[in-house]
Amino acid sequence: MAEPHMAADVTEDRSCHQLAKMFENCLSRAKKTTLHCSSVLVPEKLTRRIAREVLWLASCEPCGLRGCVLYIHLELEKGWKQLERIAYDASVVPTFELTLVFKQDGSAWPSLRDFLFMGSCFGPSFRNVLKLSPGFRLVKKKLYSSSAGTVIEGWLRSNASCTNSL
After folding, report:
1. Which of 115, 69, 117 is nearest to 96 (CA)?
2. What percent of the chain has pLDDT over 70?
3. How far from each other are the two terminal CA atoms of the chain, in whole angstroms?
4. Kind and range of the H or E element at 56?
5. At what angle do helices 2-33 and 46-58 cross, to 10 degrees?
6. 3-state SS assignment for residue 122
7. Predicted confidence band at 161 (pLDDT cuts at 50, 70, 90)?
């Protein structure tokens, strides 16, 4: 009897992994086109946490994630930059929108681990590295409902200096 439950867990885990990879690919594309930086440092498991929240918000929608249009932004010191607009399944009429806002890490100095990862403490690429905060903002707007949007603020509670580079 546990097999259908396990199959659902595997499917959800696969969807979560695919979404996390989609966010990572978006950041990777944006570093070249929109952000004009050489590297984006992402806190460990941030994209996976965001993917879980997105799946949870999509779970009560008639078309699920397939009915989602996702707007991805980066909050900078001087406002926001739109990174990408993604229709999860372009063949489905959207039933809701999600706005994801990554936040830039406001700390003055990257950690020693980040320096070592970049390969050089004071190389020319140092100024072109963008470090994301473990926090994010996720806002849901239903397109066919008068109900107000849902806002989720996310913060990574573990060691924020653990980063992955994109």
Report:
1. 69
2. 68
3. 41
4. helix 46-58
5. 120
6. coil
7. very low
| Residue bearing the bigger pLDDT, 93 or 121 | 93
pTM for the model stands at 0.74
CA triple 71-134-40, angle to 5 deg: 70
Residue 100: C-alpha distances to residues 54, 80, 155 (Å): 9, 11, 13
Q: Which residues pair with 154 in a beta bridge?
A: 136
How far apart are alpha carbons 5 and 46 in whole angstroms?
Answer: 26
SS percent in the chain: helix, strand, coil, step 5: 35, 35, 30
Q: Give 81-107 as a DSSP string.
A: EEEEEEES-TTS---EEEEEEEEE---
Token pair recorded at residue 104: 């830039």
Task: List the structure tokens of 128.
Answer: 């072109």
- Closest C-alpha to 126, from 41, 17, 33: 41
Distance, CA of 99 to CA of 78 (rounded, Å): 19
3-state secondary structure of 1: coil
Compute the chain's Rg from CA coordinates. Answer: 17
> What is the bridge-based pairing of β-strands 129-142 and 150-154?
antiparallel
Inform me whether the pLDDT recorded for 160 exceeds 80: no
